[in-house]
Amino acid sequence: MKSFLKNSVLVCLMVPFFINAQINKPSLSPKIVKELQVGLATVRLEYGQPSAGDRQIFGGLIPYQKLWRTGANSSTKISIDRDIQLAKKDIPAGSYGLYSIPGENDWTIVIHKNTKLWGAGNYDQTNDLLRFKVPALKLKDKIETLSIYFENFHANGGDLVIAWEYTKVVIPLFVNSDPILFKEIEEKINHSTGEIKAQTYFDAAQFYYHKNKDLDKAAEWFEKAIAMKPNAFWYKYYRAELAYHVKDYQIAKEKVTTSLNQAKSSKSGDYGYIAKCKLLLEKMNTKN
C-alpha cells in the first residue's frame, strides 16, 4: 500500500512537469478556416498555410505527379451545404478532402470522401469521389504563402483558386441557382397575395438585370422599388445601369445624376455609390 501511494505521488508530481515541458510555439503553417457564400452555396475551406521561404516548391519540395495534401499538416477540406459542380463535375453536398497531384502543365484535383486523414497518410484511392484535371497557370510574381480562395464571383458561383510560388490553378464552381431564384421571384411577386416590399422588387429586378432576362419587367420592378423608397439612391443607380445597358441614355443620365446627388447628401454615407455614379457618367460622356 505504501509503495502504491509513493508511486501515485510521484506520478502526480511528474504530470505538471510534462505539461510545463511543452513549448507553446506558433505554427509555421497556421490553420486557415474560412466560410463564405458562393452563389447560393455556403462553402467552408480548412487548410494549413505554409510559406515558401528560399525553397523550390513545385518540382522540389512538392514533387510533380505525386499526391499532395494541398496544404500543410492535416489534409485540406472543403465543405458545401448544397449540390454543386467543380469544373463541370457533380459534387453532392457534404465534406471532402481536397487533394491534388501537381504537374508542370496541369494538376489533377482529387475530391476524397475521407476527411479524417493527416495529410496523405493512409490515403486510399478507392475513397475518391472523383478526379479531374485543370490547367496550371504560370505567374510572373511569386506568391510567398499558399493561398486558397475564391474570385470572379457571379450569381451562379465563382472560381476556386489554389495559388503558391509561381503557379495558380483555377477550378470553376457552379451552383444551379437560377431555377430556385426564378421560382422564388414568381412566388413572391407574380403570385403574391400580400404586400410586396421595395427590397423584394429591387432584388428581383437586379437578378433579372444580371441574367439579361425580361429587362422591361426588371425596369418596371426597379421603378416600383424607387417609388416606395425614393431616398434609396442605390436603387436609382442600378436603374441607371439597366437603362445604360439597353441604350436608353436619357433615363440613365437622369437616374444616375439623381443617385449621385442623393449619395453626396446622405448623412449615413454614400457606400461607394458616389464613385460608381461618377464612373457611369464618364462612360455616358464617351457616348456623346
From TrEMBL:
Protein source organism: Aquimarina algiphila
Name of this protein: DUF2911 domain-containing protein
Start-end of each TPR repeat: 199-232
Keywords: Signal, TPR repeat
PROSITE patterns recorded: TPR (PS50005)
Domain of life of the organism encoding this protein: Bacteria
Pfam families tied to this protein: DUF2911
Signal peptide positions on this chain: 1-21
Coiled coil: none
Keyword Signal carried by entry: yes
Keyword Kinase: no
Gene3D superfamilies documented for this protein: Tetratricopeptide repeat domain (1.25.40.10)
